């Protein structure tokens, strides 16, 4: 028997009014979080200047947030399986609200990184949100629910880029954080009042209050994973200097990363309650889907780190524009996500996941290749970002849909947490890799203070992204073959 795609059964199943209401609330959360992230993107050059940091160090403004999210997403997913989706959603949302409330008060890079870590913990709410959608929506309509949430991420990006550009230009980057505080508080109240999830299964899962080894949190796994990811990313950051001592440090950090990654795999294999289920991860359908999602995360955040620097660097090394123009250049990327988020969901609901994933991977590769060849004007950059966004949206929604349909219901929290972790790992590598190229290929201009990335840095960034995107095409073809062989999971 084969895995049944949404298109196999048609669209005859109905979505309840309660499910739609919950979807709207979860979509508002997605809008707020993406608004919070994208509004800060045009300010990256300002933060580099105000905090007196390098391009390599600036990548940690995104990376610290992402590492915290990477570690906490599987933990939150596991806790939601044990204690309930709504309870954990409220707790994590509360942590996020604290983080964004503190953001505008940061006075140096270390305070900012600590605050970003708190915000990253809050990002772990999304595997919980997708798990709620899986429980409330009919199997044939899951892609629609997921597509709507994805589109609201894009809506948040649109609002964030437009509002962020204006706020930064007129009031400074601090104002971007202050603008989120009332929204976060309002959403906490709305979640508590209006989201209702059937969690009668929790009593059985928790052994009626008795200690259950499978319900313990894998602390050792979390620590080893944190050390491994941090070591690899610190190595990328330190590549910015070319002296021998730094090369020795980079090698040392890389070895630490490898050792702790091996330890993490051993711990997870032996754990009764792993952060990452090796059995689920090794599934021939779920594994390529997760790698595709990682590539999507890497691609998106590489763009977020690179484009603001390109647009705001002085001519001829960049376009010499202000924060508002930085937002406008990236706006087509967000607008296309807004259109293709729900559209991808309906396409997948009718046609299945594999064709859109293949087409999306090809389009993403074309977008990065053309960005590599043509990024000499703001218009060319905007057009290629729109092409790239189309492909990433199709690939992401399709791959997530395959994972949700292929994972047994009892493992869905852990599986989605694991998938989000893998996506965030990719997303944390993206800005670090871009910053490494910008830091190692920079020069100064007569009469202009500071040093700025050269054309070679942008060429290397976009070429690297193109080659990585080529890998996604091969993975999409592998996934199509595996889907044709796989049994149904329920």
Automatic annotation (TrEMBL):
Task: Tell me the Gene3D superfamilies matching this sequence.
Answer: MFS general substrate transporter like domains
Which part of the chain is the Major facilitator superfamily (MFS) profile domain? Answer: 22-484
Gene Ontology MF terms: transmembrane transporter activity
Keyword line = Membrane, Transmembrane, Transmembrane helix
In terms of superkingdom, the source organism counts as Archaea
Q: Which GO terms describe its cellular component?
A: plasma membrane
Location in the cell reads: Membrane
Q: How does it sit in the membrane?
A: Multi-pass membrane protein
Identify the stretch annotated as signal peptide in this record.
none
KW Transmembrane helix (keyword) present:
yes
This protein's record includes keyword Calcium: no
- Its primary localisation, in coarse terms, equals membrane
Q: Which InterPro entries match?
A: MFS, MFS_dom, MFS_trans_sf
Membrane-spanning regions, if any? 20-41, 53-76, 88-107, 113-133, 142-163, 175-196, 217-239, 245-267, 287-311, 331-349, 356-373, 379-399, 420-438, 458-479
Q: What is this protein called?
A: Transporter, major facilitator family protein
